[in-house]
């Protein structure tokens, strides 16, 4: 941890604080006046300055308030505690408008002073924004044409300050794209700050984004910078923007429109010099139609849209990514990297990967830990892939055939005993209701037929048909009443409306 700097012309104050902080295991560095502090900052050899600054308000050669202003210009995120006599209390209170963390009245109670300094240190460590070290950033790998399009788009967009909206499924690497845009931009020397708007409770998200003033709400004992201020001069990545509460969308629109915002409880506008990159896995156009997302904010974000392909759309990249993740997992665990057989790699390539690249990375970590030998074979793959391998090979013996389920009729013969009918593609209609007795057999037959044709969109094709059948069946029992149909299916009203539009169902 960086040292705590103490600035006071009173040697006894410096001595007492130094000894108390040393007992707490906190490093210190002391100065007798503002000039020394500023000289030390100017001469700093890349260590980043102090963790926090504790400064007297009255010192020879300048005041603590002047020092506060000068330090904030150099290190805007540095917590500064102002020590003051009671006669200086009014001026110390006014220091909060200049960004002071807290004031410490003299004479002070030493345990309370240490507690306050501890709190400032914790806040500093929690809020510390480290500039992105681009060499350490996760690599973006891909030779598939879809990924080459992404790389070309990054190259064109990087030198621009324009707002970018990244779309793609969860786990497809949207944050990596945002980091790459930052890495190659004129703002590369500034911070990259990411926030997942879906992961933060609604009542805390406003403070996280815009910061708050002391006393703005219960528990706000100090002023706090938000992510916009933390990203000053750099890039702010707003992940899962589609989940942002509607009322906060208005505040975000204001920032994007005129570049100013207010802290929670604040009355002074703060200028934001930040490039915003947003990402979502949702269909924002549909969210706008449903009234869940502001249309004007959508158009403000959607200046340039960059779609990231799902992993199933770039299967040729799976071998390269697999070897990369196995190598990285081995480094993290301090073991020898494992190799994977060709047959196991083929099996990996056939998996639909609903969790995309993130799921593949997790599987590689699982294999590094759980695979018994140095060479990974098909039998070492996770259980969900074993099931896929069994289904694809048709190795379902009589003992493995489940008992008939009441209401569904008899199961069809195993795939190994039944030839795939030439009309398998017609057994799961795109509209209408599936026959009760043979739907699972039909599903398996069509899946095998499409796989045999070398199709790479089997998951999407069959999922659309399956969802269409479910929704049409439910609508037929409710005479077209969508809300009732959604309740019967166990899904939300907005979900069934979106699915009907996506699937082109006429109800």
Give a brief rundown of this model.
By secondary structure, this protein is of the alpha/beta class. It has helices at residues 11-23, 34-42, 64-74, 89-94, 110-127, 145-158, 174-183, 202-210, 227-230, 246-258, 284-289, 295-301, 318-333, 342-350, 356-370, 383-393, 439-452, 458-477, 482-489, 493-503, and strands at 4-7, 28-31, 52-56, 58-59, 62-63, 80-85, 102-106, 164-167, 192-196, 235-239, 260-261, 270-271, 275-280, 304-307, 339-340, 375-376. The strands form five sheets. Strands 2-1-3-6-7 form a five-stranded parallel sheet, with helices on both faces. A five-stranded parallel sheet has the order 9-10-13-8-14.
What does this structure look like?
With 507 residues, the chain is α/β, with parallel strands linked by helices. The protein folds into 4 domains: 4-127, Rossmann fold; 153-308, P-loop containing nucleotide triphosphate hydrolases (Rossmann fold, 3-Layer(aba) Sandwich), CATH 3.40.50.300; 313-393, Orthogonal Bundle (Helicase, Ruva Protein, domain 3); 425-503, Arc Repressor Mutant, subunit A (Orthogonal Bundle). Helices cover 44% and strands 12% of the residues. The chain has 20 helices and 16 strands. It has helices at residues 11-23, 34-42, 64-74, 89-94, 110-127, 145-158, 174-183, 202-210, 227-230, 246-258, 284-289, 295-301, 318-333, 342-350, 356-370, 383-393, 439-452, 458-477, 482-489, 493-503; strands at 4-7, 28-31, 52-56, 58-59, 62-63, 80-85, 102-106, 164-167, 192-196, 235-239, 260-261, 270-271, 275-280, 304-307, 339-340, 375-376. Residues 129-138 and 395-437 have low confidence and may be disordered.
């Amino acid at each position: 941890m960086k040292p705590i700097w103490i600035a006071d012309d009173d040697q006894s104050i410096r001595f007492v604080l130094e000894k108390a902080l040393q007992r707490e295991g906190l490093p210190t560095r002391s100065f007798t006046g503002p000039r020394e502090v500023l000289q030390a900052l100017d001469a700093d050899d890349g260590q980043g300055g102090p963790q926090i600054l504790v400064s007297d308000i009255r010192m020879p050669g300048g005041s603590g308030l002047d020092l506060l202003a000068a330090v904030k210009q150099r290190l805007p995120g540095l917590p500064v505690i102002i020590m003051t006599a009671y006669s200086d209390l009014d001026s110390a209170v006014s220091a909060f408008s200049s960004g002071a963390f807290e004031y410490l009245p003299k004479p002070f109670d030493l345990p309370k002073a240490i507690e306050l300094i501890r709190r400032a240190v914790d806040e500093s460590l929690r809020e510390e924004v480290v500039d992105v070290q681009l060499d350490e950033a996760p690599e973006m790998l891909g030779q598939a044409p879809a990924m080459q399009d992404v790389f070309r788009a990054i190259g064109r967009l990087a030198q621009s300050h324009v707002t970018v909206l990244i779309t793609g499924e969860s786990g497809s690497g949207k944050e990596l794209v945002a980091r790459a845009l930052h890495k190659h931009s004129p703002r590369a020397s500034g911070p990259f700050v990411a926030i997942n708007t879906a992961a933060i409770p609604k009542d805390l998200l406003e403070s996280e984004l815009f910061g708050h003033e002391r006393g703005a709400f219960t528990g706000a004992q100090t002023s706090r910078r938000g992510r916009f201020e933390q990203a000053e001069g750099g890039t702010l990545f707003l992940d899962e923007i589609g989940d942002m509460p509607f009322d906060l969308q208005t505040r975000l629109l204001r920032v994007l429109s005129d570049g100013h915002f207010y802290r929670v409880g604040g009355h002074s506008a703060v200028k934001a010099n930040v490039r915003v990159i947003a990402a979502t896995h949702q269909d924002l156009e549909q969210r706008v139609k449903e009234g869940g997302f502001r249309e004007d904010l959508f158009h403000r974000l959607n200046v340039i849209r960059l779609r990231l392909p799902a992993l199933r759309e770039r299967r040729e990249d799976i071998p390269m990514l697999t070897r990369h993740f196995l190598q990285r997992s081995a480094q993290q665990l301090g073991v020898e990297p494992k190799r994977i057989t060709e047959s196991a790699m083929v099996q990996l390539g056939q998996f639909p990967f609903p969790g995309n690249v993130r799921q593949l990375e997790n599987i590689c970590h699982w294999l590094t830990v759980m695979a018994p030998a140095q060479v990974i074979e098909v039998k070492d793959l996770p259980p969900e892939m074993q099931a896929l391998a069994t289904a694809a090979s048709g190795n379902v013996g009589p003992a493995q055939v489940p008992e008939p389920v009441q209401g569904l009729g008899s199961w069809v013969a195993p795939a190994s005993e039944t030839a795939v009918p030439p009309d398998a593609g017609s057994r799961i209609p795109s509209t209408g209701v599936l026959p009760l007795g043979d739907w699972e057999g039909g599903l398996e037959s069509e899946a095998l037929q499409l796989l045999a044709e070398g199709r790479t969109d089997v998951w999407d094709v069959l999922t659309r048909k399956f969802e269409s059948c479910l929704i049409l069946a439910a609508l037929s029992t409710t005479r077209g009443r969508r809300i009732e149909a959604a309740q019967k299916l166990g899904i939300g009203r907005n979900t069934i409306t979106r699915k009907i539009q996506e699937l082109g169902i006429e109800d």
